[in-house]
Amino acid sequence: MSATHSIEHDIKNIDLAREGELRIAWAEREMPVLRLIRERFEAEKPLAGVRLVACAHVTTETANLVRTLQAGGAESLVIASNPLSTQDDVAASLVADHHVPVFAIKGETTERYNQHVRTALDFRPQIIIDDGSDVVATLIKERQGQIGEVIGSTEETTTGIVRLEAMERAGVLTFPAMAVNNAQTKHFFDNRYGTGQSTLDGIVRATNVLLAGRVFVVVGYGWCGKGVALRARGMGANVIVTEINPIKAIEAVMDGFRVMPMAEAAKEGDIFVTVTGNRHVIDQTHFASMKDGAIVCNSGHFDLEINLEALREMSSASPATLRPFVEEYAVGKRKIIVLGEGRLINLAAAEGHPASVMDMSFANQALSVEYLVKQKGQLEPGVHVLPETVDTEIASLKLRSLGIRIDELTPEQLEYLSSWETGT
Ligand SMILES: NC(=O)c1ccc[n+]([C@@H]2O[C@H](COP(=O)([O-])OP(=O)(O)OC[C@H]3O[C@@H](n4cnc5c(N)ncnc54)[C@H](O)[C@@H]3O)[C@@H](O)[C@H]2O)c1
Fold first, then answer.
1. Cα dihedral 355, 94, 56, 350 in deg (nearest 10)
2. Which atom number of ligand 1 is nearest to the Cα of residue 199?
3. What is the pTM of this model?
4. N or C terminus: which one in the chain shows less Cβ crowding within 10 Å?
């Protein structure tokens, strides 16, 4: 931890700030909805004096969210939500230009990552912005005495919501948590189009492989999987989907993809992407039947979707690093290539989602934080979603910023839709 700067921080290099500042400004151009919220926050100061921790991928878009929260009057501290997703230049700019304490370094060890989570809790946050629920889970496990100070939390991703719901069932979630991921203006766009584009971007930046003509296996056909499969097909890949949910599987079939069990897909695939939020969906038996040169990566939240422990045990030597984020494991006479250490490939090897989708995700974050502060003491403990009118308003603002107009219901149509008398 460095004390060389007046703002507390643990980042890679403060001298990267200028580069970060330019990239933050570039992202801001594509975030008009968040800009409108920031302008209102500047005038109204709805978060005045609120101590806030943001555990997020430290990207240019996150920096613009933090600027918005600051404009609203919040006192913020930022940590990474994944050891490999921090953009070190952005972390530097947040400290140097925006005077935000940041504890995040790309490639930090799991131990240091967990230490940063505890540093965040030492800040005694009243609001927690979480991405994967590590801060909330650590608060509940280790800082019971502090829970009373928390107004509420917001959760960015599917995996975090799954954990929050488990906490709610176990009776340990004693404050309101806003499920930002569940807003339609978040997962319809961020999880699908954001993960779709940025996952392929990560694979291509890491390897420069041609996708056309390759057999590309997408494990999980949820919101992220749909986006990845759609974009892989767009690049000319021959896409196979694997699922455990019959409804999602039939959806993939009717979207025109081949669907089969992982045991069969393992033999056919050239490139594999996991996006399930589940554990060991690529396991030892699958590695055993993969082709020589198969490329395996993950875009789900945690690095447990691919059983790397099993792959390590199967291989004769330590993996060879061929390029940044590209490691080759020798399994008998075959080689299996793992990208980004099995961590989110779109953030490890690329820049994460484009700013245009994060505009809506982070509009939801900023408005959820405001909602929690305004409703302080009124909301029941447990998982909440923003009112649907807020979702619709975010979509309307996004359309307006894109210069796209749509129709409005006529009074006649409104009356028809709210009545039951008229039929054939
Ligand atoms: N890379 C990113 O930037 C990014 C962005 C958003 C979400 N995420 C993460 O991606 C993961 C998926 O999110 P989502 O919103 O698509 O979730 P989702 O719930 O919509 O989809 C997950 C799908 O995986 C399927 N699945 C579960 N176990 C499986 C198995 N063993 N084999 C095959 N399919 C299986 C489920 O049936 C479901 O359809 C989560 O961990 C989420 O947090 C990552």
1. 50
2. 1
3. 0.96
4. C
